[in-house]
Amino acid sequence: MAIQYWRIRDRYYRLIGSRCGACGSEFFPPVYRCKKCGSEDIADREMPRTGKILTHTLLHEPLPGFEALAPFYLAVVKLDNGAKVLTQIVDSPPDAVKSGAKVRAVVRRAKVDGDSGQIFYGYKFVVE
Amino acid sequence: MYLMQSKERAAILGYGAYVPYYRLPTTEIARVWKGGGSGPNVEKAVAAIDEDTVTMAIEASRYAMKMAGTDKLGAVFVGTESKPYAVKPSSTMVAQALGQHHTLAADLEFACKAGTEAMQIVTGLVGSGMIEAGLAVGMDTAQGRPGDDLEYTAASGGAAYVIGRMSKKALAVIDCSTSFVSDTGDFWRRAHERYPRHLSRFTGEPAYFYHIENSVKTLFEETGHKPSDFKYAVFHQPNPRFPVEVASRLGFTMEQIKTGLLNPLIGNTYSGSSPIGLAAVLDEAQPGDKILVASFGSGAGSDAFCIEVLEGVTGARGVNPTVRSMLERSTKIDYSTYSKFRDKLHK
Hints:
Chain A is mainly β. Chain A has helices spanning 2-7, 9-14, and strands spanning 16-20, 26-27, 42-46, 50-59, 72-79, 84-90, 102-112, 119-127.
């Protein structure tokens, strides 16, 4: 995982997605061809760090490697540019985690490879 | 001359604080370990299970860069004693997250005063003309051995400063600073050890008070300043009592230190302690106000600064959350949750 992660770390640290030069659509995660107009005129684009929760769930049985975080909120967030992100919601009271809630991106530890391996960082969101 | 003063003055162009969401009441620590009442502080700020010095430094730095209105940093220094990696710089991870690559990046360590060292170094680089602007961060996820006195105060948080050349938008000029150090074994953590050790009462008189009094008195002697020249003073805050005592000894009043005195509510954020105190002061200071900042790091040393607030500070209001708002946005946790968050439990 370490090298794969290293290659795309800007996606996790800075929400680097894509912008279509032909129609202006923006996407996250990045794309090689525009999903709207099919253009291959694609460039990196830093996504807005704010958006709203579209939908969410409270996850009690996460994938292996994330057990220590459970239970946690998993949500689909619609960023201010329309791009959608599947993300964890942190540091937010339960009654604030709801559809339409304004959120902003933060950088957190995503996964830790034991006591001697690497620490992988990524985006999560906080309710404003 | 012991005064450090650059020929071209450097100024704070932006700052950002970070206080984690979680608070552990010290009554919880007392309940588990010693019974009785709370510790010297009411609560301490606790980083979440997925937070560390790097994540908190990134958040504070983003705030600082936003306020400064800059996307180019010639230096990124992270002062901390709680690096996530023993070998692998925290500063490069922070720089990467900020989109900075053509930059000098390094980690600094000096117990609780690495943050102010970072500020001095960036001030020097800017003042010499080597860089336009740089980032200085003081941030820690301080750890105390379970049941130790230190556990009542060891906390998480800090602040970041973008320091650059003087401009109309500059918030405050860093006029000068002094440093005073000696080999003092008041507090230490050997390699591979999880928790630091300390010499209890030895941390006071020959360590904290001796070094801060020397750095501040030297600043006064070299500049001719006196306590009444300063609207605000911020001293390192290992507990609520020491900063009040050293302020009194040096001739400062409670009125001058109360704004930056955060220990009762968040504990000792180590390298972040005096930088976040300064951030709380800048949140309300007015142009023309002078601020004295004196850090302390065990081992031991103190850096004292004379900072003067400029007109630009008023334009920066409302750009970022204030320190006070970060104190209010919080939730209490119990000792069990704290133990899980701070890796005190091992399966």
